[in-house]
Prior knowledge:
Mean pLDDT: 79
Oligomer: single chain
Radius of gyration: 23 Å
Amino acid sequence: MIEAGRSAGRAGAAAVKGFWSGFTYPFRGARLVYFKSPGLVRYWIWPILITMICFAGVFAAALVWNDDLLELFWTVPSGDGFWIGLQKVLRPVVQGILFLALIVAGFFAIYLVTSIFAAPFNDMLSEEVERISRGKEPPPFSLARLGRDLLMTARLELTKALLYAVVMLPSFFLSLLLPIVGEVLYAVFGYFFTIVFFAVDYTDWPLARRGRGVRRRLGLLRRNFVRMAGLGTAVWLFVLIPIVGLFFMPAAVAGGTLLVLDMEDEGALD
Length: 270
C-alpha cells in the first residue's frame, strides 16, 4: 500500500515536471526570437501586420454594415403602444448581438485566411530556429518546392481550422441548451481539445519536415501527452489575448520547434 502510494506520488511529480517543461517552451522561443536573434523579424512580422489590418477591416465592416443588415429584417419601430415600446427596447439588444456575430464570423474568416498566409512564414521561421539551435541548414530554395509547400499548407491549415470549427461550434451551442452543466462540460472539453489542437498545430512544421504523418503524430502526442499539453496550455493562455496573442505566435512557433528538437535528441519522436 505504501509502495503504491509512493509510485503514485512519483508519477504525479513526473507529470507535473513534464507539464511545466512543456509550458516553458514558448517562453524559450520568445527569448530566441525576440532577444537572441532579432533578425528573425523578417519572417514573423508579415503575418502579424496582415492580421492586424484584417482585424481593423472586420471591425470597420461590422460598424458600417451592422445597421444595414439589421434593417433587412427589422425596420426601426415607430409609433406608440406596448409592442412598439418593447421593440424599441429589444432592437438595440439584437443589434449588439448581430455586431458580435459579425465580429466572430469575421475573426473566423481571418483565422482561415491568415493561417494559410502565415504558414510559409512560420515554416521558414521554424527552419531558422533549427539552424540557430542545431546548425541544421534548410533545404535550398526552389519554386517547385515553394509551390508544393504552399498547396500542402493551404490544405492542412484549412483542414485543421474546419476540424476545430466542427468540434467546437456544436459544443458551444450545446452548452447554451444545457445551462450550467453544459457550460461546465464545454469549458472542460474546450480546454482539453484546444490545448491538444495548439500542441499539434505548433509542432506541425518541424514534424512535417521530418515526414511524420498523421498516425505517427498521434502516437507522438500519446507518448508525450503531458509535455505537449504544457506547450498547448502556454499557447492557449496567450494566443487568445487580443494583440498580445499576435506577438506570441512567433514565440509559439519557435517553442514548438525547440520541443521537437529536444524530443528528437532524446529519441522520443519514434
